[in-house]
DNA sequence: CTTCTTTTAACATCGCCTTAACAACAGATA
DNA sequence: TATCTGTTGTTAAGGCGATGTTAAAAGAAG
């Protein structure tokens, strides 16, 4: 679970927050002093920081500044009794992600934390590239460019040809069910789409016939296997 | 620059925001009606959404729900006169990124937008933006000077001709999706902009026909490839 | 106004996908 | 074995949406 660094000098507020966040599945470390908080950040690995602005030792702005110097990404939320505009602007300029004025609603804080963490997770997910290049016997298949090339031979596939071949490639040497292909590409499994699929299989077989070690095998009433 | 979809029925508030955001370098589209706003989102590609909660036609929650169905990532901020806790929680559950109650401070809104965009942009790279000179077969294309020259031949390209050719050059020998070109140049993907693109492709083909090793290949229903 | 660029319109053309038609095949039944 | 039946293999035709192309209208800049 996500580790949160909380720096807050008000003891009752601090424990309240720790309780609340821990009961929501976060792993929270509480520090009451600015310098100690920053020190802890440098030593440990935190996914999230919640900083009070008014602190003994070192104020929230300074902590944020220091944190940003070594970590440009870790989300930071400020807690403040003040709702002064200048304070908020200063915070955002330091790369703070959100700003919450006391007294605040715990649930709202929770949702704001979740909103920011979600954004990070989505970002990481989308940076995973999907596989687009496959080797099929002596062929090279580039799904992104809809391009199939063998020795001397090169063919630009149509979108549907490409879709079908990609699905087969993703489960090479394994059975892919007719139904799964139909649902994935056409969104429905009926007689006519089934016949369309058969037409595309025939086309792909033609393209792939140069290398006789490659074949698209039919498993009657079940589906197809790309062997190679 | 970042494109913002703003849905706000209060006319004066709407224009105020548009003015303010545009003067801060954003490209803002304003819709006063919920349904129209959602429709616009589906057609164009937006980097950011700012939705009023109370709207005629379709309320902000419903818009957000629909937007989240097709785009899990685009940041959404709610504007609301109400500061009801239940409303806020509902919003965050829909995957909203922030929640701002009216009357709000424009600068604070701006910094909140920037905070969220910063988080997204941290991982993005913009290395391709600066390239301006390309070799296309026996042609030389200088995007900065909108100049295309072949043997003996030299042609000053118009802005849009240049934009289209540049995008194709940046992914030479690779498929560039129609949609991507339309979004990059026109900001939205609809029928008429699509036909405009086809017109520009025809023009570019004419300019490039001197070297027959160069071609702009159509990949039906997907996009184009600059071969050379 | 003129001049240049972009969009819209109109019509021609292309080619992908579906559908149809028939052949081949496998499995079931007797 | 032969026959029946449903599935798949294969090719071809046609519809229809997408694209190619040119010209006219609209827009922008001076």
UniProtKB/TrEMBL annotation, chains A, B:
<dbReference type="Pfam" id="PF00486">
    <property type="entry name" value="Trans_reg_C"/>
</dbReference>
<dbReference type="InterPro" id="IPR039420">
    <property type="entry name" value="WalR-like"/>
</dbReference>
<dbReference type="InterPro" id="IPR011006">
    <property type="entry name" value="CheY-like_superfamily"/>
</dbReference>
<keyword id="KW-0902">Two-component regulatory system</keyword>
<dbReference type="InterPro" id="IPR016032">
    <property type="entry name" value="Sig_transdc_resp-reg_C-effctor"/>
</dbReference>
<keyword id="KW-0238">DNA-binding</keyword>
<feature type="modified residue" description="4-aspartylphosphate">
    <location>
        <position position="52"/>
    </location>
</feature>
<protein>
    <submittedName>
        <fullName>Response regulator transcription factor</fullName>
    </submittedName>
</protein>
<dbReference type="InterPro" id="IPR036388">
    <property type="entry name" value="WH-like_DNA-bd_sf"/>
</dbReference>
<dbReference type="InterPro" id="IPR001789">
    <property type="entry name" value="Sig_transdc_resp-reg_receiver"/>
</dbReference>
<dbReference type="InterPro" id="IPR001867">
    <property type="entry name" value="OmpR/PhoB-type_DNA-bd"/>
</dbReference>
<feature type="DNA-binding region" description="OmpR/PhoB-type">
    <location>
        <begin position="131"/>
        <end position="228"/>
    </location>
</feature>
<feature type="domain" description="Response regulatory">
    <location>
        <begin position="3"/>
        <end position="117"/>
    </location>
</feature>
<dbReference type="Pfam" id="PF00072">
    <property type="entry name" value="Response_reg"/>
</dbReference>
<feature type="domain" description="OmpR/PhoB-type">
    <location>
        <begin position="131"/>
        <end position="228"/>
    </location>
</feature>
<keyword id="KW-0597">Phosphoprotein</keyword>
């Amino acid at each position: 679970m996500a580790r949160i660094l909380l720096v807050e000098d008000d003891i009752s507020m601090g424990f309240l927050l720790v309780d609340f966040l821990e009961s929501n599945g976060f792993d929270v470390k509480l520090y009451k002093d600015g310098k100690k908080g920053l020190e802890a950040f440098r030593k440990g690995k935190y996914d999230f920081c919640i900083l009070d602005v008014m602190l003994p030792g070192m104020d929230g702005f300074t902590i944020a500044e220091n944190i940003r110097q070594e970590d440009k990404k870790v989300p930071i939320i400020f807690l403040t009794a003040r709702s002064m505009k200048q304070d908020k602007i200063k915070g955002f300029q330091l790369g703070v992600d959100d700003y919450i004025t006391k007294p605040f609603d715990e649930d709202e804080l929770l949702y704001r934390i979740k909103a920011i963490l979600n954004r990070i997770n989505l970002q990481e997910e989308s940076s995973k590239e999907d596989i687009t290049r496959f080797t099929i016997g002596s062929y090279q298949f580039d799904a992104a460019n809809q391009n199939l090339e063998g020795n001397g031979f090169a063919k630009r596939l149509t979108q549907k040809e490409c879709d079908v071949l990609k699905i087969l490639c993703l489960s090479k040497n394994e059975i892919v069910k007719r139904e799964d292909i139909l649902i994935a590409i056409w969104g429905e499994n009926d007689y006519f789409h089934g016949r369309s699929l058969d037409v595309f299989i025939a086309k792909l077989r033609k393209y792939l016939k140069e290398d006789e070690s490659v074949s698209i095998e039919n498993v009657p009433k079940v589906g197809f296997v790309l062997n190679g």
